[in-house]
Amino acid sequence: MTGRTPHRRYLPLTALLALTGCAGVVDIADFGTQDSAIFQDAGSWLNRARQYVDEGDLAAALRHLRIAQTLDPGDKRIAVEIEQTESRIRLLVSRYLSEGGEARKLGRVEHARKAYLRVLSLQPGQPDALSELRRFEQFSDERWMAATTSRSRQLALEYDQSKIESEEGREAAVYVGQSAPQPEKTGTGGLLDYRQRLERRIENDPGDRGARQLLVHMLLERAGKAFTQERFDQALKFLVEGESIASGETSLQQPIGNSREEYGRTLYSMGLRVYRDDINRAIGYWEYALKFDPENEKSRLRLKSARSR
Questions:
Q1: Region 16-128: CATH code
Q2: pLDDT digits (tens, 9 = 90+) for 64-95
Q3: Do residues 10 and 230 touch, judged by C-beta distance below 8 A?
Q4: Would you call 255 exposed, middle or buried from its count of C-beta atoms within 10 A (0-12, 13-18, 19+)?
Q5: Backbone angles phi, psi at 229, to 5 degrees
Q6: What is the value of pTM for the model shown?
Q7: What is the dihedral angle through the alpha carbons of 301, 59, 27, 46, rounded to the nearest 10 degrees?
Q8: Of the candidates 270, 253, 254, 264, which has an alpha carbon nearest to the alpha carbon of residue 295?
Q9: Domain boundaries, the chain
Q10: How distant, in Å, are the alpha carbons of 17, 45, 193 from that of 149?
């Protein structure tokens, strides 16, 4: 960190997106003096928009297309490409909303949250996604842990049958079938105790994949909740701990890597939305984006440009 990260208490992520996300309004100044100096004509903005389409960043493509249309309202090519891009965005939004709804029904809170964040990256302020994210934020710790424990029971069924039949396995089956732990606290029955028991099982038997899977899932859930509350350092800490538990195993490492990339993209978008009004805050978001995903080249370039101003 450079010391230029956000230092005030800001609105939660969903409120921030609701207030700042307005996909239909484009101000060239939002793209910074460097972009506006380079792109002086509609054709340049159109070409850059096509590059964004090739990169899969439809939201950025649409913003550039709208600027191109502002510069040359009579260009039918631009109008057609805007219509095509909007159509693709609508299809993806519908798909991610459906995925989020299915994940929520299965108690897969982290998967649902990521699906709704994808919706907002494509269509800032999308009401259904915002509504669902607000619901997640309103969950009490007890309800959140109940959902986690429900998923834990499902994961426990994947334990090797021979182990479940052993004395140790029967103990594990009883353990994951008990009532949901209470919010984090010291002592037995709390979230901290729930985690410590899993860690002891892993320490006693490093090959216990079921316990490792439960713990990684728990850490992903907690990272998602912390990220939504803009506690980015805490979210990153949980992901790093999850990577340590995963020990390079692809099936456990992959969802952590996916979360890192998703949070990096979200932080990049958050930086863009505040860049014009608060450059230091934008820099802070992009610095965090690179902490979550060091390969996030868009944040790296934006950060370099902002620091040179």
A1: 1.25.40
A2: 888 888 888 888 898 999 999 999 999 999 99
A3: yes
A4: middle
A5: -90, 5
A6: 0.46
A7: 80
A8: 264
A9: 16-128
A10: 30, 50, 14
